[in-house]
Every structure is written in C-alpha cells, then in structure tokens.
Amino acid sequence: MLRVTQLLFNPAALTEKLAMYASNLQELLFQCSEHSDMSPQAFGEFTERFNALRSYGHLPKGRDQRKRLLTPIQIASAILGLVPPRPAWAGHGATVLKSLSPVGGPKGSFHNTASLIDAMALLLTNAYARQSLMAARVILGETGANSNGGAIFTYENEGIRKQAFFMPTSLTREGAESSFDFERQLFSPASREMSFGRLFFERIARTMEIAALHPGELAGDGSEYDEEEAKQALWKKLGVTPRSRFLNKAADNHVTWPREPTLVNFDGYHFVLMPRTKENVQSVHMDLTANRLDDRSATTVIRRFLSVMAWCDNNFATLGFGWSGNPVPVPVAKPELGFRTTLHYIFDRKMPSTPEARRALALYREALNAEHGALISYAVLNYYKIIELAQRAQRQGHRGAARDWFRDNFDHARRVEYLERSLEDFDKLRGTTKPHEYIYASCRVAVAHANKDSESDPDDASELLRLHVAADIMKVLARHCIETEFKISDCMFDGT
C-alpha cells in the first residue's frame, strides 16, 4: 500500500516512466479488443481513434514524434479512447472521461486516486492495484444535467469487496460513496458501457515493462500520419493559426462555389468556403480571432458576401445553422431530418369550407416553410397576414383591427410555458413600446416596407435575431387565431 500512497503524492512519477511507442500501443489495444464484440474489430477504426487522440493532444502529434515513448498517463488516455462507440469521438471522449472525480473524494476512491485517469494509470503501473481489481466499467452516456461520463471500479481490499465511483459532479464530501447509487445517475434511457477486466491491464502492464527495457521496432510504416499531415498542409493553406477560433455555418445556395476548400478575401475579411460532399453541405468558415469579430458580426459579414454572390449569379443563397469555437474550419454535416411516421396512420379531415380559412392555412404553411428556409422576415409577414385575414373575415377590417387583436390576445402567448425565454427577449427588445404596437411597427411594417422608418436589413445578424424572437411569439398567436377565429382543429382525424 505504501507504493500506492507514494503515487498519489508524486503524480510526476507517472510522467517520468516511459513505456511503448504509440504505433505499438495501437496494435496492442487492437489485439486486446479482438473479442470484445461478436463482430470482428477493424484495425482502421483504431487508426481513426488514435488520430482523434492525437488531435486532442492525448498522444504525441506529428511524424517527427513517432519515436517518442508514451507515458502511463498517455497510455491510460488511449484506453479511455476505446469507450466512445464512434472512433472519431475518441479524443473528445477521453477528454471528458479523464477528469471524472471520485465520489467521496480520494478516501472513497480506488486506492486514493484523485481522478479516473489517475486510477487507470495506477492500474498500469502498480501490481497491487491490478491484483485488487475485479472490473472497471466506463460509460459516456448522460449522467447528469448537461454532463456525461461515469465509471465504477469493483475491487477487493483486505478481503472486502468495494466499489469506487467516478462522476463529473463534485460529490467529494467524505463518505458520499457509501450511499451513492450509480444507476440513479443514468439520465439516458440507454447507455453503452465498456468493461475492462484485470487481464486487460495485466497484459498491457506486462508489455509496458518489456518495452521500458527493450522498446523494439516501431509497428507500421508511419502511414497513420499521412492524413494528419495532409490536414496540417490544408489548414496552413486556409490561414489557420494556433490562435484561430472558427465560426462554421451551412450555406445552402446555387451560386458559383469552389470545388476545393478555398480561402476568400472579401472587403478585408478572410474566410473559408467549403464545397458540398456526400456527407457535408456547402459551408462558410470565418476565423473570429484573425478577423477580430464576434459571432454576430461575423454572421453579418457572411450574409453580405452571400448577398453579393446572389446578385452576381442571380440565384439563391441562404445561410443556415452553425456553431463556433473550433480551432480549425469544420465541415458542416448534412442535416438528418427525422420523418414523422406512425404504424397506424389515421386521417379523416376535409378541406376548410371557406376561402378565408383555406388561405389562413396556406399562409401558416408558407410561414413555416420560410422559417425552415431561413427567410424569417417572410415568416413574420405571413404570421401577421393571418391576423389581418381573420379580422377582414370577421368584418372588422377597420384600420388597426389586426393591432387590436394582438393587443387583446397577447396574454395567450404569456401563458405558453415554452415561450418564457422568447418573451423575456421580446420584452427587452420592445422596451416601453406596447407589444401590439411593436409587432406592427417594428415587425410587420419594418419587413414589408423600405422607407426611412422601416430599415429592416436581412443581412444584419442582430436584426435577424430580433425577428426570430418576434416570430416565435407571432407563430403561437397566429395558430391561436386560426383555432379560435376560423374554428380549425389541429386533430388529424376529427372529421371536420
């Protein structure tokens, strides 16, 4: 036990002990995992996992580091990279898992280790810890609100079977492990689990001991670095720097677009255009650091670029979903929209009896389509037109009737629970202006006209955000209007 305690208080010892090469570890983990599933393992998947681990800094990067021996911590990180079912997520999965903390603090941990990565490294370097282990179970599923990952170590200590738990939450109160229920932490209805037995760690530890004395020859021909080197060359060409932070946005369009990833200069700003592929959509990527912009300002610049391209080619160009924060431009995957299907399809509806009711449904569908197609100003206008249509149908078509309807019915939106965030933003945006007046002047008139009092700019990201907030509320009110004014049910089989 003394040796275990020393490892706890001297973590630097885990970085001083060098073992095997990364290429040899890849082959070893492949061999150890051959019978972990009914289907045979593919060696190419392990190459993908190790490339992902390198990209996250868990393993040495670059061909020039190929002969660098790994530390126990790096080997333990590679083992954690086996847990994610998808090989490309090995680096991110290891990052999440390695920092999991012991429930109950070090005293409730596996031989007093301070984190999951320390526990894994201890199993690789300490024979006493290995002999005590029965099984280590690791998952990456949801184990808390906005948190993933967990582990259970089952082991024996002085003839007593114990369990140590590692979680993303800070349940470090001494003794917390005694009443901890791991199964209650599983937020997801189903979670995949990776189990490691004592023989797994003994085989790796034995190989590490041999490699420490005789590292041997490197496995493979170094081709595992080809893809990484090609990416590095491409990123250099695209202006990526160590300080880069990219905004990645889908750009559905039918304008002239490069066949290869291309760095573009537009009015002093630089960004990358990526082409459509079998897996990805056309996309635009802007380095926020290099261009000295935030997400919203960068989005506006990209929209200005698309507007110029739409004008030059006389064709459509829309900016879709995206995110920011990557150190390199990341292609945007094609969205996989789930179809709403049912085993028993029951439908019994008739066409609405009046032309106004039929037109109201048509306007609502067009508004939904506009939102899906990133045409938010058109969606706002159509939601408003539904109210105007209803007032005309009720013979209340006097000037301002639609505004009066929004005034009289706005409380309906405040009763819709999922609108709480949108209503908070809406109230901030309108300030002291009455809700119905704001919807009329700053939404309906702003998008329908182009005079000096209606300067809605569809390229301005702040303006689009404002209209999206309004659209969330106007959609609910337009639906309320259709249900109450036109008496149209939303049930698919009520026979009306």
Structure description:
By secondary structure, the protein is an alpha+beta fold. It folds into three domains: 2-225, no CATH class; 238-326, no CATH class; 355-485, no CATH class. The chain has 18 helices and ten strands. Helix 14 (376-393) packs parallel to helix 18.
Give structural attributes.
single chain, 496 residues, alpha+beta, five-stranded antiparallel sheet, 10 strands, 45% helix, elongated
Largest sheet: 5 strands, antiparallel
Total number of helices: 18
Structural class: alpha+beta
Helix content: 40-55%
Poorly predicted residue ranges: 1-9
| Nearest-integer average pLDDT | 87
**CA(first)-CA(last) distance:** 78 Å
Q: Got a strand count?
A: 10
Q: Percent of residues in beta strands? A: 5-15%
Number of domains: 3
SSE pattern, N- to C-terminal: HHHHHHEHHEEEEHHEEEEHHEHHHHHH
Order of the strands making up the biggest sheet: 1-4-3-2-5
List the SSEs and their pairings:
Layout: H1 2-9, H2 13-16, H3 22-32, H4 43-55, H5 72-80, H6 90-98, E1 101-102, H7 116-125, H8 127-132, E2 133-144, E3 147-157, E4 160-167, E5 193-197, H9 198-213, H10 226-237, E6 246-250, E7 262-266, E8 269-274, E9 283-287, H11 288-291, H12 295-313, E10 322-326, H13 355-372, H14 376-393, H15 401-414, H16 420-430, H17 435-448, H18 461-485
Antiparallel strand pairs: 1-4, 2-3, 2-5, 3-4, 6-9, 6-10, 7-8, 8-9
Helix pairs in contact: 3-4, 4-6, 5-6, 5-7, 13-14, 13-18, 14-15, 14-17, 14-18, 15-17, 15-18, 16-18
